[in-house]
Amino acid sequence: MPAPGHLPKETEIHPTALVDPQASLGQGVFIGPWCVVGPHVRLGDHVRLHASVMVEGHTVLEDGVEVYPFTTVGYPPQDLKYKNEPTRCHIGARTIVRESVTIHRGTAQGAGETYIGRDCLIMANAHIAHDCVLGDGVIIVNNVVMGGHVTIGEQARIMGSAALHQFVRIGRGAVVGGLCGVEMDVIPYGSVLGNRARLVGLNWVGLKRAGVEAGEIQQMRLAFRELYPRASGGETVLGERVSVVRQKYGHIARVAEMLRFMESPTRRGLTRPGRGAAWEKDDEG
Question: Which residues form the UDP N-acetylglucosamine O-acyltransferase C-terminal domain (predicted)?
Answer without folding.
Answer: 185-270
